[in-house]
Amino acid sequence: MSEFVHTCVRNRTGCITLDRPKALNSLSLDMVRALAQALLAWRDDAGVDAVVIRSSSAKAFCAGGDIRFFHDAGRATPLDGSALLEDFFSEEYALNHLIHYYPKAYVALLDGVVMGGGMGVAQAGPDSRVRIVTEGTKMAMPEVNIGLFPDVGGSYFLSRAPGRLGHYLGLTGLTIGAADALYAGLADHFVPQARMAELAALIEATPGAQLRGAIAAFAAPLRGDAGASALEGARAAIDRHFGMDSVAAVTASLAADDSAFAQRALAAMAQRSPLMMSVTQELLRRGAALGVADCLRMERTLVRHNFANGEVLEGVRALVIDKDNAPRWTPAALADVTAQMVEGFFAPVWPAYAHPLRDLT
Fold this sequence. Notes:
Elements (H helix, E strand, L loop, with lengths): L4 E6 L2 E6 L10 H15 L6 E6 L4 E3 L4 H8 L6 H20 L4 E6 L2 E3 L1 H4 L8 E5 L4 E3 L13 H4 L7 H8 L5 H6 L5 E2 L5 H10 L5 H9 L10 H4 L1 H7 L5 H9 L4 H12 L2 H14 L4 H18 L1 H11 L17 H6 L17
Parallel strand pairs: 2-3, 3-5, 4-6, 5-7, 6-8, 7-9
Antiparallel strand pairs: 1-2
Helix pairs in contact: 1-3, 2-3, 2-16, 3-15, 6-14
Protein name: Enoyl-CoA hydratase/isomerase family protein
InterPro entries: ClpP/crotonase-like_dom_sf, ECH_dom, HIBYL-CoA-H
Pfam family, one: ECH_2
């Protein structure tokens, strides 16, 4: 078990606490394995009826995968870090699949930063999930900012957000709060931070089999307190702009709209990887027609191509290693991204029988 993941069972509820505050609970391979080990054990344990996952700090639930590890491992020799990189993504995506189909109530307390890999361990399937946000929630799928793409099942849950909201979130990588998360279907309940201790006491006192109903009753009168959703107010514009057939057409449409919302989206996209925005748009198009397992298999193929291409290594260098915030994207302009470049990311890497996620169903 990881030193950064603490587990226990209380009142027939399995409790998981992410405790790596200095790294905003960024997921390491050991953390992924600890989560999978606990969830697999509790899945078949008749003494556990529900699972609650939370952070030890209100600052962050989970900021994603450990991108500094991605950079170091991606530049290592095949016998060193690169093998661990392969293990990380295969095991992380298998964990995402386990969570999506978890047969017991799965409660995620999403206070603070919830990004990337944090979304992957938050977005359980509709039969089990209870996703709670607060006024401190900062949610995003910002992978295009580091030359990656919305993975950890993002091709599934973003492509199923209302209208073109998933395309907006995936292509801009912008952060949303509680009201927008509720509107986009990425959260279920709002609870003010001031009442989170009260909620924790309720969870501890409630038998696991009754947990979903108890939390819903606790949070239901408070949902309106999350405030107005900016996404709801801009929904018509989002659907119009992000419904375009290409990323270049999206940016042209945004450029013709002088509203503050459109210009903010356009400014964000100007900083992102042109290639990976284009890959993301195609990923979401394909993901809308696939189940969870096939989405994760597709993403696993894209990860292999992405690190071979090097775009993510350049993005992490600029953001985390050198911190110059001046990534040298290849190609540098949307006009230079070709259909062949995008299609190459979806080319099979393994025969179906050898795919590392072949056993997902």
